[in-house]
Amino acid sequence: MHILVTGAAGFIGSTLAHRLLDRGDTVVGVDNLNTYYSVTLKKARLARLSARPGFVFHALDIADRPAIAALFAKARFDAVMNLAAQAGVRHSLEDPHAYVDANVVGFVNLLEGARRSEVRHFVYASSSSVYGSHTRQPFSEHHPVDHPVSLYAATKRADELLAHSYAHLFRLPVTGLRFFTVYGPWGRPDMALFLFTKGILEGRPITVFNEGRMVRDFTYIDDIVTGIVPVLDHPAESAPLWSSDDPDPATSNAPFRLYNIGNNRPVALMRYIEILEHCLGRQARLEMLPLQPGDVPETVASVADLETDFGFRPATPVETGVARFVDWYREYFAESHPRAHHLG
Question: Can you tell me whether residue 248 is helix, strand or coil?
Answer without folding.
Answer: coil
